Amino acid sequence: MDPAHVEPVVNDTLPSPDDHFTPPWMDLARCRSLTPSEFFPSDGVGVEVAKRVCAECAVKSECLDYALTHRIDHGVWGGCSERERRRILRSRRVGAL
Length: 97
Ligand code: SF4
Prior knowledge:
By secondary structure, the chain is mostly helical. The protein has one domain. Helices cover 38% and strands 0% of the residues. The chain has three helices and no strands. It has helices spanning 44-55, 60-69, 82-96. 12% of the residues are buried. It binds iron/sulfur cluster (SF4). Residues 29-31, 39, 53-54, 57, 59-60, 63, 76-79 line the site of iron/sulfur cluster.
């Protein structure tokens, strides 16, 4: 086979380089100066501590929307635990039926 005639394989499921930019709202995140471990807690107490930080965050709704849109499974985002985000996604699916 002539290599000049090989069709390129396009895989639309792979993220594009544009998917890796940092959204502007992250500059206003209240958790910016905290350690990641505080937002990826291993127990319920850690979740409550993170949620208290989120409660006063100016970009809470943007953060939650980002986590839901990107199906982020782990950590506290937008004041919601992993379980709460799963519940929101489930209720949206039910609502879409
Ligand atoms: S809502 Fe919480 S996790 Fe999201 S940016 Fe604000 S402080 Fe960070």
